[in-house]
Amino acid sequence: MLKRLAISIVLLLLAACSQAPVRPTAAPDPYPDVAIQTNQGTLVVQLDRQRAPLTVENFLHYVNTGFYDGTLFHRVVPGFVIQGGGYTMAYVEKKTAAPIPNESGNGLSNLRDTIAMARDDAPHTATAQFYINLVDNRKLDPRPDCWGYAVFGRVIQGMDVVDKIAAVSIGKLGPFDKDAPLTPVVILKAWVLPKSTD
Fold this sequence. Notes:
The chain is of the alpha+beta class. 19% of the residues lie in helices and 30% in strands. The chain has helices at residues 2-18, 53-64, 159-166; strands at residues 33-38, 41-47, 71-77, 81-88, 114-117, 130-133, 151-157, 170-173, 176-181, 186-192. The strands form two sheets. The chain has an eight-stranded antiparallel β-barrel. β8 and β9 (176-181) form a beta hairpin. The longest helix has 17 residues, at 2-18. It is globular, with a radius of gyration of 23 Å. The termini are far apart.
């Protein structure tokens, strides 16, 4: 009888220990910072999870899985945009996850220093490729009669690097008939920066 009681007490204690209190998870950072290191220098973009939650989660997925590491800024159009994040150094387009919904109606505009999603003509076709606006490109914003291109953050450090990339010689290279940097501009690594606890 005492032996059975002792076993019951031990089992009750084990059950109590296995039901440790659940700690609440911290809310995701509404404005995460991502560093993008290129062979022309490093820039930092601050993402806006408040205005573009699906787009930011999508971009962070590609950052955190190392998808962008070793890809190119394959398109440079001076006075317009630089575009990258989809092609390897061998000019092979990388396989991506499914396209995401277009969040271009989020109140963010395609102004100089903003980062936005590239896509095909159809509105909900953005996957991994992104671009950085070199000038104010309000024509890329949504209008009542058409979808725009979804802005999801802005460059907060390194616009000089963006402008340096925009100044490289461009032409026909790989699968591109024009606008390809003749000396490859490589994204060496992209990663989320820790926020200061100060």
